[in-house]
Amino acid sequence: MSYFANSPDDLVDSALAGFARAHAGLVEHIADPGYLSARRPAPGRVVGLVSGGGSGHEPLHAGFVGGGLLDAACPGRIFASPHNRQVYEASRAVAKSGGVLHIVKNYTGDRINFGIAAERLQHDGIPCARVLVDDDVATDSEDIAVGRRGTGATVIVEKLLGAAADEGRSLDELEGLGKRIVDGSRSIAVASGAQTAPGTGRAAFTLPENAVEYGVGIHGERSGVVRENAEIGPLVRDLTAALADALALTAGSRVTALVNGLGSVTPLELYGIFERFAEELSERGVVLERRRVGPLVTALDMRGFSLSLSRTDDELTALWDAPAHTAAWINEESA
């Protein structure tokens, strides 16, 4: 068997129940219609934060429900958008006096279902706004009608907006801040092996030996760009250049960086990748103010990684450093 579960649906349902049981002090699992909410929401918030998306990307989004981050997360089936009823019910449950903000990755299903939920909330008199995360450099093309995909930088958006919400900022303020963060964030991913489908055990695609798919998506979307005989040093250099160019970074630019494992890349490899990433940024004179390394936005068992950069300043760095405690996030000392 490729996955230790009876079926794809069983995998999702049992994992959600198990996650809530394992982290019972942090989250509550509402099985019908299916969402996770924070047990100890921040008392100073006037706006609730809700996100969600397909399962298979753990710890996103469930791992970021709790103090300093999300009030609720809505998981769909594997690689499928949550139903609009999930989003609606979760949003109603955690909405504050100032309404609710949806953090949405830029995929058609997510946009539609969060949009329907938002219309229902507004009909109920609950103010609702949306921050659309579209950070993927590989899909930054006028030929792609839906625009850039939402990927690794979603974690940065959720962390910073969570801290800002804890300060008591309004819905309009959070929406504006979220759009500013998204505008200053870009990601790109590569993989040497596709994820395997829980239902069939087959790989989503195959690659030649010692080759990588450059610009792969978190659902196994292929870019059509295959690099053979890829070496990690030149590969990280090219990925860094793509991000730096997309953000127009120059010497003195300040950034937060993520090195994200897509499922089956080991911590040993990820920290080696981070070291090369940091060296590339240093050579460009880019100031690496904050960083995070590990599996944050995965794609089941895909053998790959993504790099993300987000422009920062004194305000955003302070928000990054603000206290947070969820199943997948504990603040680290900054240096």
From TrEMBL:
* UniProt-listed InterPro entries: DhaK_dom, Dihydroxyacetone_Kinase
Question: Molecular function terms in GO for this entry?
Answer: glycerone kinase activity
Q: Does the keyword Kinase apply?
A: yes
State its Enzyme Commission number(s).
Answer: 2.7.1.-
Q: Which residues form the DhaK domain?
A: 7-329
Biological process according to GO: glycerol catabolic process
Q: Which UniProt keywords apply?
A: Kinase, Transferase
What PROSITE patterns would the database entry show?
Answer: DHAK (PS51481)
Q: What top-level branch of life does the organism fall under?
A: Bacteria
GO cellular component terms, A-Z:
cytosol
Q: Which residues form a coiled coil?
A: none
Q: Name one Pfam family in it.
A: Dak1
State the name under which the record lists this protein: Dihydroxyacetone kinase-like protein
